[in-house]
């Protein structure tokens, strides 16, 4: 059997495509990925925290975990903005489906939590683990 890999997360978040490359690697590896929040896991950092193996996701007592909708800003012609708006909604749906897959939470609950730009307490992270 493969040994667990421990991923310590202290992240304010970042670019979605960069985070997804880490996520894809986590899914590709045969070993279980145990994730631990030390400090903060915000935005894409919280997504990666939740992508750890079920029952192997942890956070230190004073950690901050924040989930929100994808952010974006675009300029240009109306048609260009429409294209980008459709893409960001597609990304939002994909991320929410993956969060649901890894946490067992409904898409509706995830939408409600992220719409409110929510900080999830260490007591609540259990419901997302």
UniProtKB/TrEMBL annotation:
GO BP, one annotated term: protein quality control for misfolded or incompletely synthesized proteins
Main EC class the enzyme belongs to: hydrolase
SUPFAM superfamilies for this protein: ClpP/crotonase
Keywords of this entry: Cytoplasm, Hydrolase, Protease, Serine protease
GO terms assigned for molecular function: ATP-dependent peptidase activity; ATPase binding; serine-type endopeptidase activity
Active site positions, chain numbering: 43, 68
Keyword Signal applies: no
CDD domains for this protein: S14_ClpP_2
GO CC, one annotated term: endopeptidase Clp complex
Family annotation (Gene3D superfamilies): 2-enoyl-CoA Hydratase, Chain A, domain 1
Enzyme Commission code: 3.4.21.92
Keyword Nucleus belongs to the record: no
Annotated family: Belongs to the peptidase S14 family.
Name of the protein this chain belongs to: ATP-dependent Clp protease proteolytic subunit
Organism: Cacopsylla melanoneura
Taxonomic lineage: Eukaryota, Metazoa, Ecdysozoa, Arthropoda, Hexapoda
């Amino acid at each position: 059997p493969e040994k667990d890999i421990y991923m310590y997360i202290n992240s304010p978040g970042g670019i979605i495509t960069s985070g997804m490359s880490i996520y894809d690697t986590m899914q590709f590896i045969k070993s279980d990925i145990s994730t631990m929040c030390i400090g903060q896991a915000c935005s894409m950092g919280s997504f990666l925290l939740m992508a750890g193996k079920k029952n192997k996701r942890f956070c230190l007592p004073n950690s901050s975990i924040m989930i929100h909708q994808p952010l974006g800003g675009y300029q240009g012609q109306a048609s260009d903005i429409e294209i980008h708006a459709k893409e960001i909604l597609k990304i939002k749906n994909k991320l929410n489906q993956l969060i649901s897959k890894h946490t067992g939470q409904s898409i509706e609950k995830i939408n409600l939590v992220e719409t409110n730009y929510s900080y999830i307490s260490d007591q609540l992270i259990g419901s997302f683990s």
